[in-house]
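Support case: user asked for a sample of complex input and structure output to validate their parser. Sending the pair below.
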Amino acid sequence: MCALSMNSIFLLTVELLNFHSLQSDLVNHCCSFPLRQHVRSLVVLCLCCRLRMSAEENPAAEPAPVIDVQGDGRWMSQHNRFVQECKDAEPDVLFVGDSMVQLMQQYEVWRELFSPLHALNFGVGGDTTCNVLWRLQNGELDNIRPRVVVLWVGTNNHEHTADQVAGGILAIVQLLLSRLPKCKIIVLGLLPRGEFPNPLREKNAAVNNLLRTSLPQLGPVQLIDVGGGFVHSDGTISSRDMFDFLHLTASAYRTISTSLHELLLQLLEETPQERRASLV
Amino acid sequence: MDVIGASFHNRFVSDSKGKEPDVLFVGDSLVQLLHEFEVWRKLFSPLHALNFGVSGDATQHVLWRLINGELDYISPKVVVLWVGTNNHGHTPEQICGGIMAIINVIHQKLPHAHTLVLGLLPRGKNPNPLRERNASVNALVQAEVVSLSHVSFLDVDPGFIHSDGSILHQDMYDYLHLTQQAYQRVCQPLYERIKSLLDKQAP
C-alpha cells in the first residue's frame, strides 16, 4: 500500500466502490462486514488525502521560508518579531496569513473590533501556504494558546493549482489542530480579484469550493466566505472595495469584519480559556 | 504590463479626463497606500489631489504610464513624484537616471508644473545594502535637480532610523510600508511644501 501513490489508492477505491454498487448482492455474499466498513473508511481517507496530499506530492504543502533576494531581509525580520511576540503575549485569537491579514491591522477596524479580543496579527504580505506553514512550524505557535485561529492565505500561490492550494491550506489546518488541540479554526475564503473576470477569480472560487466540504471533516474548522458582494453584476470589482483590485480598502474591511467579529465572539464564548500556568 | 497594471492605467487615464487636479501624486505603493488612510482625506483631498500610485512600480513603469496617457488630460500645478525603491537590480545611478527621465517627461507634457521629488525612505529592520542604495539615489537626485527651477527635492524621512540602526514596526509594519502614524509624520512637512508651491504658482 505504501508503494502506491494516494491518487492510485483513490482510483482503486473508486473502482472497488463501483464494483460494489453494481454487484451489491454478490459482494454482500462474498464480502464480510469488516471489509465493507474498511472500504467506506478508505474512501473518506482518500477523499481527505487527495486534497490533503503530503508535502512530497503537493508543493503547496511544503513548508518554505521566503529567501531574501531584495537585500533587506524584511521577511525574516517580520517572522522573528512574531516569534518574539509569542514569548510576550497571551492572545485569545491569532490571525495568520498573507497581506489580507497584515493590512487589516493598519486600519481603524483592527483597533476597534479585534484588539479588544486580545488578537495577534501574524500576516505577512506576499506569503503563500508554504511560507505560512514554515512560519508556524518555526516558532510562531510556540508558547501561545489562542482559542481561535483565523487563517487567510492562498491567493499568492501562483505556481499551484486550486487542488494544491486547497491541500496546502488543509495542511496548515492539520498543523494548527495538532499543536492547538482545543482551538477552533476559521478559514477565510479567498476573495475574487482583478478588475474584470479572469482565471484567478475562477481558481480562488475553486479553492473555496474544495475547502467548503473538506475542512469540517478535520475538526472544529469552518470556511467563511466573505467575498460575496465584491463582484458587481457587470463582472467588475470596484476600486472603492479593492484599491488595487486585490487589497481591501478600509470600508471593505469594515464590511467583512462585522460578521467575522460576531463569529469570533461566539466561538470565544464556547471555548474555555487556558492560562499559561496550566500549560506546564 | 500585466492585467492589474492595465486596470490602473486605464482608470487613471479616464479619471483624469473628468477632473482638474491641482496636485498629482505619482509613484509606487507608498503613494498608492497613502490614499487609503485618513491623512489623504484631511490633508490632500482639500488640495484637489489625484493619486496615481501603483504598488510595485519601478521607475520604468511610472515612465511608461506618464508617456502613455496619464498626463494627457490634466494640468496640475504640482506633481509629487515618489518612486525608486522597487528598482531592484539597478544601480543608484540608473535609478537616478530613471527618476530624471520621468521629470523630463513631466516637464515636456506639463511645462508649467512644478515637480516635487520625494527622497526614498530607508527600509529593512536593520542596516542593509538597500538603505545605502536609497541614500545614494537621494544624493544623486538632489544634486541633479538643484539647478532646475521647475523641480525640487524633499527629504521626507522624519528620522525613522533609531540610534541602534533599527526601524520600528510601529513606523513600517513590514519594514517598508508606512503605518498611519508614520504617514502623519511624513505628510505634515510634505503638505506644507506643496501648499507653499501652490501659493507661489497662484496668479
